[in-house]
Amino acid sequence: MKKKIIVGLVLAGLIGASLGYYLFNKPLESTESMKVDYKMLPSELLMAFESDETQANAKYLDKVIQVSGTVSKCETKDNKVTVYLDTDNPMSNIIFQLEKSTTEIKEGETITLKGICTGYLMDVVLVRAVLI
Amino acid sequence: MKQIITTFIIAIVAMVNLQAQKYFSKTGEISFFSATAIENIEAKSNSATTVYDSDSGKLQWAVLIKSFEFEKAMMQEHFNENYMESSKYPKAQFKGEIKNKEVIKLSKDGSYTAQVNGTLEIHGVTKNVSTTATFIVKSGSITATCNLKVAVADYGIEIPSVVKENIAKELEIKVIANYEVLDKS
Question: pTM to 2 decimals?
Fold first, then answer.
């Protein structure tokens, strides 16, 4: 009986430790498999941050947002692709940092992306974005 | 007639000069590195925004805390939720100026060392900082780099005692930007 308890405890300990180790080393989950929280147009998203940043932060930070719009610029630097979508405001864009490098995106094209909203500087910035 | 032409040329030169006063980047890179005997932690953001006005010497940087990416999901979660409280303080900012702006000629190839003074706001706490940055201009492309050290405790960031040994007291921060000329159109 005592032996069984010890074996049980050791097993539980091992499972716990490996689960902990697994969770600790878990890489970031891909946005690909994440559910979209909001679907928006570029100007709509920008407007939300321009009119009330605190409220927009509370609503959109860490959320997966899907945006369709026209590509005004697409840059690749050190394998990191940054896509700028046009808005009503010529000074501000919706900026997406893509999760994976791609050569598919062309300026002037209309595309749909989803990414995780990180907030607003001069632009609204979304990271770990994927093409839809 | 000659005078009109001269005035015209001066006006054009002045306009060109005026246009080339502001430089910016929206893909500035900020990374930080914590080195301890137990583990090394590194995170990076590629979406910092910076503007430099060569006329006044004013320099600004801003970065969203949630745009920092870590290798491990759990580190990123702890960084945002426990240490930086990024939902409450979504951005870090630097506002300052280049003291020796006269020697930094961004329209001419070369390597320039800038004396930078200003305030750095992280986690809702603002501190004075002064550091040096390097501007390298090569065939029209402008790259600025800066390395600085930031003490975690200075910015009211609390590290629980359990992981105190895992996180360095001073973080090494590396900043890189490729500046573009801001068109006034």
Answer: 0.85
| Own/partner long-range contacts of A46-50 (Cβ < 8 Å, ≥24 apart) | A46/A87, A46/A88, A46/A89, A46/A92, A46/A94, A46/A123, A46/A124, A47/A88, A49/A119, A49/A120, A49/A124, A50/A89, A50/A92, A50/A120
Cα–Cα distance for residue pair B18/B103, rounded to 1 Å? 18
How is residue A46 written in tokens?
A: 């920008």
Which residues in B lie closer than 8 A to residue A91 (C-beta atoms)?
none
pLDDT, tens digit, for every residue of B3-40?
777 666 666 665 555 545 899 999 999 999 999 998 89
Does the predicted interface ipTM exceed a cut of 0.90?
Answer: no
Chain-centre distance for alpha carbon B127: 15
Residue A96: closest C-alpha in chain B: B47
* Rounded CA separation A131/A110 (Å): 11
Given CB atoms, is B164 within the 8 Å cutoff of chain A? no
- Both tokens of A22, joined, read 């697994």
